[in-house]
Sequence to fold (507 residues):
Amino acid sequence: MSVLFRNVQVFDADHPDGMAGPTDLLVRGDRIAAIGAALDVPRAVRVIDGRSQLLLPGLINAHFHSPVNHLKGALPSLPLEVFMLSESPALAELAPTPREAYLRTLLAAVEMLRAGVTGVQDDAFFLPHPTPEIIDAVLQAYADCGIRATVALDQPEVAELDKLPFLSDLLPDDMRAELARPPAFGRAALLEAYQYLISRWHGAEGGRLSAAVSVSAPQRVTPDYFHALDELSRRHGIPLYAHMLETKLQRVFGEERLGGRSLVRYCADLRLLSPRMNIIHAVWTDDDDLDLIAGSGAVVAHNPISNLRLGSGVMPFRRLRDRGIPIALGTDEAIADDAVNMWAVAKMAGLIHNLSDPDYERWPSAAEVLDALFRGGARAMLRQDDLGVLAAGRLADLAMIDLDTLPFTPLNDLRRQLVYCENGSSVTLTMVAGRVVYEAGRVTTVDEAGLRAEVRAIAQARGQVRQAAEAETARWLPYYRTMYRTAAARSVGLPRRLDTQEDTARC
Fold:
């Protein structure tokens, strides 16, 4: 059935006011068929009154990890390396059932759909490793709820000791031996898992679901596996995800373990930077790194709330924009943001960088933040010709905002009020691929009350397992804390935190 939005305002990044209208927008099938005044009503059309409403491109969450959706608020603020130790200890008891994986994926998908998010890039990690049943559970959740999702398998391939500096010298012999063993689920098994993901799910649901590949981070895999994933990315035209220079410790890792090269330079030397790559975080990058990223055509997925929650630092936003590096926005995982709210991410992106430069004319504008939210997200998904803009021929992934709400009363500047005032509460409708999936205060594809009740019951039953996980974490914590503090004390010449007086010679 076709849908006609009548007398609606349409977001237009190039319009002086940020919107054009009132006008009509016709959706036929999964695409926008036409935009214009007084469009003819075709047969079998649903007409939606758009008076006082604004249609936007659907928001895109460019970086996310679904497997910890059920752990929001579970951890205090911790540096990433300590945080990861607490988040995913190596206990077989923590492995989810397919039903649990399905429910926890739905949990955040519902939160996103309610706020106008139509697309998500899920860099999903699995304990202890991905299986067809768990992959199916995650993708089936995305299929059932109606969101657009691109999913990768974020799994390390090398031993823990090979991913981190200093740790080997800190551990006693028996504990060092534990961390010196590479994962049993190695390169061949991981590539088989990708073969299953791609053959079973890539292009499913009329193209609404797709695959990506992920190295997790360059230091967490071998070059051979990295090249194999890059070849999959090239062959299928899909994104490649790589966390890079998220923390100062990762910068120090390059000095200690890569002959002084940064992780970006290391990837460039391997000839693995490409327009298909999503470089996630990019906080501790210097100008040489940014020149390499710009030359490669890669996109950076910026996660400002997660970076603050984990104390990672502030990404050099203006230095990226000056080089024309595409920027997308993401929440990161629910446990590192404690919400999956892209409006909050947009607002933080519009604020935190004001502390990075005394020249206020170089602070991010609302228009730049919205560009990252819409066009940047589409670019990260490699769907820049289909998403991120409302225009005839584009996919009908859109959100409708009520302008007769407090965030827009009075309406002074649409772009600024979208970035600084809106929190998702004004979203009245979400459409993905021409299908209305949120309307009148409810997600139309999911029993939300039943979902919440079942998730609460599972969490209560899992309480003792979480206690065992905390005990396992405590065994390693003193060594990881020392490793982190050793790296934190190292000067790397990049001012990325408010508490440092780093030499700025290289930044």
Remarks:
- The longest strand covers residues 2-11.
- Residues 56-450 form a domain with the TIM Barrel fold (CATH 3.20.20.140).
- The CA atoms of residues 149 and 209 lie 5 Å apart.
